[in-house]
Amino acid sequence: MQWKKLIPNNTFLSEYLNYTDNLETAEDFDFWSGIWIISMLINRNLYINRPNMPIFMNFYITLLAESGIARKSTAVNLAKNVLNEVLDKEDEYLQVLTGTTSSQKFTYALTKASFDYKKCIIGLNISEFITFFKNKNIIECFTDLYDCPTERKGYGTFTNGDVNVRNVFVSSLSASTPNYYLKAISEEEIEGGFTSRNIIVPAEKGKRKIPWGNAGNTEQLIKQCRHLKQFIQNCSSEAYLQLTDRAIRRYSSWYTRRRLADDLYTRSFESREQDYVLKLAGILAINEKTIIIDDYHIENSIKIINYYKKLAQKFFNKELYTEENDDMTKLITRIRDIIHSKGQNGIQHRDLYLRVHNSCSNDVYNYIINVMHELNLIEKLQVYGSKAVIYRETKDIYKQPVDKIIKNINILI
Description:
The chain is 52% helix and 15% strand. It is α/β, with parallel strands linked by helices. It is elongated. The two termini are 47 Å apart. The relative contact order is 0.12.
């Protein structure tokens, strides 16, 4: 993404991108770190008053890169430092929990904040995703708290047992290597909704190598951040952001026309995609010091969210479901994609085999088909009055990862 063309000058985000231009961090990491800072400054002060389901500006963001490649920890720590620099005594209700935080400390912070401030405003800022999210209970907790409930009961205990957590706002910025992220996130977490609430920001390299960087203008950056914070506080009496008629029309047009994907991750993500578009549009508007969301905010938000959806889709399809150098994986992926492309018409056994026979023997082909049928990924239909068999996809054709199909084939072989 060409952020400097997308983000207006003389705003906090433009200043943040200018400041981080002197760092080796990936520019995508810089953008989302800035989004997290604005999210925390807004917290529950402003929201989009969507009928029946208000939209708060929180995000769960995970920066993904191999160690030492895109300076993900640098990006996470800088965001924390900038936010802490502009927090005053009056902001003591706002808690920033760092990498040393355990799941126990997090639940304690929730309940204590409810008791002390009657609201839970928490920013999670951790450079090692797995140190915090390895606990399955905390993943379930984060999944539950994403919609910023007014009240929830039962997160840990405080003095005399369960305490209701009130007026929750949790926004997280974390970092991980791809392998560690996948160790923490199982297929159950994808189906359970955690990844659908998590913006994945992968990067393969930083902006460029900087052997001796120049110090950025920290004073100007903090000044812009303070101005934005003051603007948000001045607007808090308005309670919510407003969409223009043009913005509502653009959002509605996109929402009704979008085509949903079939793979497990993307299907899960798209269940929350409409919320992401509104959240990001709201933050882009606030960055310009306005509480009016116009059609171009919606348009830019759609482009950005779609861009990261596709990046994450490639990541999950490559890392979780396929090993691209594995011949068996390529073969299974090809067979599955062919059957899917035929929809409810299906494809005959002979025609399918003719399309893949150069890559496998007849025995291996039959093993794959039988396992896919046993896993309920495909249907076998007998053609009336003939010995011909047609294979047709089920709704679960992309539900099982390829490595599980391979394991079942290995048992047969």
